[in-house]
Design a protein that fits this description.
TIM Barrel, alpha/beta, 483 residues, single chain, uronate isomerase, domain 2, chain A
Amino acid sequence: MNALTKTASSKTQALTLNPDRLLPSDPTQRAIARELYEQVKALPIISPHGHTDPEWFASNAPFSNATELLLTPDHYLFRMLHSQGIDLASLGVRDAQGGGGLDADGSRKAWHILAQNMHLYRGTPSHMWLSHVFGEIMGFEQCLDAHTADFYYDRINDLLATEAYRPRALFERFNIEVIATTEGPTDSLEHHQTIKESGWTGRVITAYRPDGVIDADREDFIDNLKRFSILSGEDVFSYDGYIRGHQNRRAFFKHYGATSSDHGHPTAKTLNLSHAEAKALFDKLLSGKFTTDDSENFRAHMLVQMAKMSLDDGLVMQIHAGVWRNHNAKLFNHFGRDKGADMPTPCEFNGNLKPLLDLYGNEKDLTVILFTLDETTYARELAPLAGHYPILKIGPSWWFHDSPQGMLRFRDQIIETGGFYNTVGFNDDTRAFLSIPSRHDMARRMDARHLAGLVSEHRMSLEDAADTIKDLTYNLPKAAYKL
């Protein structure tokens, strides 16, 4: 039966959130996990890396409707619907030129599509996140399905019209201590300026994501460089001006609270090119007559340059590697980037990072946080590397692996060699604002579960486990990201 026409059971289920969800089934371990979770469940949220829109907090305008808040921007949700043949345009996803979108009737229809297909999310983290949003944040007592779709849609819209559900009120209700958005060097940061001038005490900072002016394979690379040149005040079409442009924009981002940069590269390759080699390569990229190896080598060179800049300005460096972004060419051509089509790829770190590590691996004033979708590297490369080099930390399980089993695999493979204190706690890495509390709650429960196993096996004392879970939840992300 087509997923679009399949409906839920005629009997709507009650929406219940078991207080022991995700905790171990073994009674002894569960009791330990409960005790550990209780100590961190109410701690403030540190969200050092994510993709929420700073305009939400700048304008503090009401969110428009359930579809535009919860479905249209969430690629975890719409990628699953796309896998069943449902057109993204029917869900409100705009095309690459910004066209499309939904009127009031279309938004309600899109919500019905989600409601009719909730069964697709069974067993996924998305189902748990949505259940938390619906039950804990919005007070629903029945599950979302075809029969409750209109009730949900209308009630959510009514809630969104109230002061309590405006962005700043939710920020405070969620007990968020700090949240970092992610912008590129072609962004004016006008919304961060508005927040700064508003007098609101919520801490919303930016992070520097320069991929748009580093990756020459991008279709908008030259246009991005033109805007980069204007905003940086440098002629970035010369290599020396290009480097100064990054330095200027990084300083500008620091003015708006940035403590980190972020680099989304296909691989972790780094290169230490001479000035002459780098200039020649940059000029080749600008000519348009370059190979994929040329663009990869420039990305690799710029990771080393960014590490050098971080030693000067103190920004923590994040590298997200091991992903083939925008894998679906037809979807990319019509809808543009970041539409749920990123795919894990093999990623090598030992050799690829060596040029950077040979230069800066033993520095005490540089932090490089590594993320990957290639789980096979956890025990083989990432844990040994971070367990040795002072600059390296391991970011939490990311994208597809931001899940209960993904978190357990991460802990099982990383900790024995890398230890807890060469990791950086949890970050939610999301555009879905209302899911942030549920994502952090999931991480806290899974850490309680993992530590309870170590305590029950007498590999760690309960006292040490209690200290560790507090560090994983709060202290480690604050320290790693200099917050």
